[in-house]
Specification:
Order of helices and strands: EEHEEEEEHHH
Radius of gyration: 23 Å
Number of helices: 4
Strand order of the largest sheet: 2-3-4-5-6
Shape: elongated
Structural class: alpha+beta
Largest sheet: 5 strands, mixed
Number of strands: 7
Number of domains: 1
Length: 180
């Protein structure tokens, strides 16, 4: 298995037949994904991709699947919410320098995504991170949290919020003053 982030395909070495590539995130990749996607944790990320030449004018087709185990913060309670991502990937890479039609391609809904590249390399890691971000639950909720609960608009951890609940001496004095 090859590394996940920084994964580039050298098109000069790409065989004429479809090539299968298996990627797995390292511990360092998982930490980078946690930070860039604002996650509480990334347990594992793997992808199995098929890379196929479609011809100079049609580009390179990358298809396959992406699986990930992640931990997000509940938008209501801020507790950890584990989640699994299972995404289907279908991206056609088009060389914008060689293909004058690249900017006028018709993209059909539900079809493959189209990415443009120039040179002899395709960077797969950016596409994989984009698919991961799109497949994540953008409003994760812990088990038992109702749909009509109010959102928490804070990036503070549960421990930091609990620390804010400490008694305030001047607030207590204010209460005494209000009684007189």
């Amino acid at each position: 298995m090859a590394g996940f982030l920084g994964q580039q395909i050298d098109l000069r070495q790409l065989p004429k037949m479809a090539k299968t590539l298996m990627l797995s995130a390292t511990a360092e990749d998982c930490k980078t994904l946690e930070q860039s996607l604002h996650l509480r944790g990334v347990g594992s990320v793997s992808a199995t991709l098929s890379i196929e030449r479609l011809g100079k004018r049609r580009g390179i087709m990358v298809s396959g699947s992406l699986q990930a185990d992640i931990v997000q913060a509940c938008v209501i309670t801020l507790v950890d919410v584990p989640a699994k991502i299972d995404a289907h990937i279908a991206v056609r890479f088009v060389d914008e320098e060689r293909n004058t039609e690249a900017l006028t391609l018709d993209v059909e809904p539900g079809g493959e995504d189209v990415e443009y590249f120039s040179g002899d390399y395709i960077d797969l890691s950016e596409v994989l991170v984009q698919y991961m971000a799109l497949e994540m639950d953008h409003y994760p909720r812990a088990t038992g949290v109702s749909e009509d609960a109010e959102f928490v608009y804070s990036t503070a951890t549960a421990e930091e919020l609990a620390a804010d609940e400490k008694p305030r001496p001047f607030a207590e004095l204010k209460k005494l003053q209000d009684k007189t």
